[in-house]
Amino acid sequence: MTSTLTIRRPDDWHLHLRDGAMLQAVLPESARHFGRAIIMPNLVPPVVTSRDAEAYKARILKALPEGMAFTPLMMLYLTEETDPDDVAAAHASGLVTGVKLYPAGATTNSASGVRDFDKVRAVLERMAEIGMPLCVHGEVTDPEIDIFDREAVFIDRVLDPIRRATPGLRVVMEHITTKDGVDYARSQGDDLGATITTHHLMINRNHILVGGIKPHYYCLPVAKREEHRLALRDAATSGEARFFLGTDSAPHTDPNKESACGCAGVFSATNTMSCLAHVFEEEGALDRLEAFASLNGPAFYGLPPNETTITLTKGDPVPYPEKLATGDGPVTLFDPGHPLLWHVTA
Ligand SMILES: NC(=O)N[C@@H](CC(=O)O)C(=O)O
Ligand SMILES: [Zn+2]
Ligand SMILES: [Zn+2]
């Protein structure tokens, strides 16, 4: 029985750090275990231009505690006004790693996102030319489409047409939650990647709704039926290069979650590595945790894996707190519903 596992330091290919007091509180939770993260640009107002990204990156580095090494990989929030030249220059200088597409209204702070996909065609074409990845929140917003079907419908109606119209565009399907997402990713070439969150490997929609509504399990895309969770587990633990970790750790304060109209987002930065070791052990795939968390992501983004390592050791339950205190108020940690035995020890 394996009780110790050393892997290359992991990276998080989808992370919300927010800003101000929240940034200050949550950044160490990621920097403790992760070497790099793709930083989501859905601030209010969003990170739209290269200037915005430069200023946000400086705020993140300023909030990083002394002695912690962590590299934020910046993203630009795609709007219908985004300037292809600004995007290309930000990529060429190394300031920005990719561009994030939010369909307008699909999720938290997505109001400035894209309504008319023809209006972003020039940006996408330029990105395909220069090899800059597009990260996509893949849900349609059509009110007639059931919320549990929005990812599958997005693949057919939006994602596949965009990819056909823009050959060579590298795309990441962010936080896939369905077997449809897994199957589509598997049916395509190596210009398509997909991130999977920790929580979607551990909960299905029953966890949100059975026995009383659990706002801390509510996120977007919303967790689906068990068959979808099992498909995600199969994908994450397969070792296939197209699947990699994006925690989508998305802090909201308790009052904003525990509300008549609660925000979408699960905060998992603190205990993600313990959760993942648990999942991969259950699947008999501990030997593939490194591919999912530390190797496949950098390979997709054309970056080397981290030089340093982390060690996970199995022992007594890890005493994670229930909440993280922040200057904006308490943030509840993702609760996997059972003790976590894997400690990050080094
Ligand atoms: N995942 C979420 O439920 N929420 C994210 C936005 C997102 O990634 O869609 C957030 O910013 O809170
Ligand atoms: Zn999203
Ligand atoms: Zn997110």
UniProtKB/TrEMBL annotation:
* Signal peptide extent: none
Locate the N6-carboxylysine modifications and list their residues. 100
Per UniProt, substrate binds at 16-18, 42, 137, 220, 252, 264
Q: What are the Amidohydrolase-related domain coordinates in residue numbering?
A: 12-305
The residues annotated as the active site are 248
Q: Which UniProt keywords are listed? A: Hydrolase, Metal-binding, Pyrimidine biosynthesis, Zinc
Q: What is its EC number?
A: 3.5.2.3
Please describe the quaternary structure of this protein.
Homodimer.
Q: What is this protein called?
A: Dihydroorotase
